[in-house]
Amino acid sequence: MKKLENAYALIIGVEDPELNTYIDAKAIYDILIDENLSGYDPNNIILVTGKESTKQHILDAFDKLQEITNEDSSVFLYYTGHGGYEFNEYFIQPSDMSNESDEIFKETWISAKTVKDKLDGLKSKRLIFFLDCCHAAGITQGFNLHNSKEVKSKSSLRPKSSQIRDGLGQKIDNERGVTIVSSCWEDQISFQPEGQNSFFTKCILDVFQGKHKSEFRDPFIRIYEVLDYIQWEVPRLAEMVGKKQNPYANLQAYDNFTLSYVPKKIREKLSVEKWEQPNKVSSKELKEVVTSYRQDEKSNNLLLFIHGFSGEAADTFGIIPELLMNDKRMDGWDMKPLGFSQHVNPEFGKDIWGGTKDIDKIAKFLAKSFKYKFDKYDRLAIVAHSLGGLIAQKAILSLDEDLRNKISHLILIGSPNNGINPDVLANTFDNKYLQLSSDGDFIKSLRSNWDTEFKNDYPFELKVAAATNDEYVAIDSCFEPFEDDYCEMVDGNHLSMVKPKDEFNDCYLLIVNTLTGNNFYNEYTNKEEINLALGKYNTVVKKLLPVVNSIDANGLKRLVFALEGLDRKEEALEILISHPLAKNNSDLYGLIAGRYKRLYLNTYSSEDGDKSFEYYTKGYELAIQANNLDQIYYHAINLAFLSLVKYHNENDMLKYANKAIEAAEASSKNVWQFATLAEAYLYARKFDKSKEYYLKATKMSGIREKLSMHTNAYKAYTVLMSTDNPEDDFIKFLYEHFLM
Asked: Global pTM?
């Protein structure tokens, strides 16, 4: 069997009379070199155990690893033994560590700083470091498992503190993309049944043996599979024996790189071509991961950007960090992103929304970062977008008073503070994230705890921003938990609100003015749109509804939008259908049809689908009579969509698609003309031509238009081709050009 290329490992098992670390280290080594399992070359693995696990041998092993690896190597690091915290320093304990005096004690440990320096010396950014150790107060007393084996802890030789090894993990994190995974959180213990592997190590072994899932799509095991399984399974094993153990992991993974092959018996069942090279992209070809926008050893203030699950750490906020760094008022502030790198695939952590378990996990990581990684700072400010706002609030609630008093500013942007409307979750996200419902226990608990803790009296500056056109998070959800004085409107939609083009952007001005103590004045000129966005729809309704029969088409549209904003959708539709203007207006027929189409796609009510088709047909016929090319292709492409999605009639689909092409090609060039041609060629199965026009459309589109195009294209393609495989070439194309 071919060995896994350019994959290296350093395994350290420190000798200890009270704890069998050798059994864990040897088990990891054996599984890595097994050609039927992981496929590592034994020559690429450095094993340091037993009496050889001295300080010098461990440091020499790191030096050797530096010599034999390169920037494209994947590096698996594993340490099992004792971790400690003494004299305000974190350390690991080699086998020759002396306990004779304080000075000799410090001279013979390996400090977290030393380990960090060794990691800095490695050229590769594809590193994962497993720490199976803790430093709690004393060895835990044994207790019975179902097999009556004793469970011990990997605790410190000379403990004086119940601080944990997640502090050690934070201190050795060099923020260059090294993934740090350690076996337990603060005030917890890393358990090991007598004569068996520790819970933590057992779970690592499980994954390499393919026990973590039942279905495999490729022959490789990647780091996020390991992380997901460990963080799920270790607490379950501990709970079985009446204990708590929750692994810690940072977020700064360089990418979701390959750790090993899956077991040979699984590989043989897979028909995957050219899978011998797992990490195809060289580190030179990948954009450098941004872990800090600005960092100065003298700075005592930190501004932390927390993204939602719709982006990645360094890109979500566009040029906002750059603008802030150019503002002299922000001198003395370090600035960092917190979250996933751009090389982490969306299915492994970057999604439009995340589950409550993900929020809890990242909130705990953030809280530990305040305590350990960012402990040098006197002031900490947070700018959080989308679900990042929920993460920030969860983390702040978990801080003790001293740490919480370090928080100087909290700015929540487009955050679903009161949850997401259940209808939006059901219709837009297929109920995938129901825990985030405004009716769910997660949100109710968060709001209750927040109100109890602060009672609208905050020890930090608070600003809460909502976008005028947020298509995902309702304004009420952003604002309702907070007093009006804390709430501001900014221009944009859910994603564009944090993507300014210049320093005159609403959101940027809100951030910089809040951080520098200035008042924020919203200079957005379309006051009517702001009023609508704020939910002040009554003004429009009171003005236009009494004169509904005398208003023009534009007034009718505004009235319909206002009624819908007040959740009077049925009334809006009835007015629109019965209004005299709608009987001879192709554009208004399209407005009616679009509302029925939206209802159909949300509920799949046959009646709504039929109504949508009926009104698009009426609009199409009126457009034909008037020879209005823009309206012809608009109605025709929607009729093609419904012919496919609602009626599964490919003949009618092609008929209307061809009509759309004919009208669009004769019309003036604009974003929707290109989008129509792209969708029409999709129906004709001319996918290369479809891609060509979609690319033209994307160059002229904002985020909102892109999301709209993706919704139609994805739905149509998956129905037409009977596949939703994320690896499908066209589906990947749509994702990469419309959602990234």
From this structure: 0.56
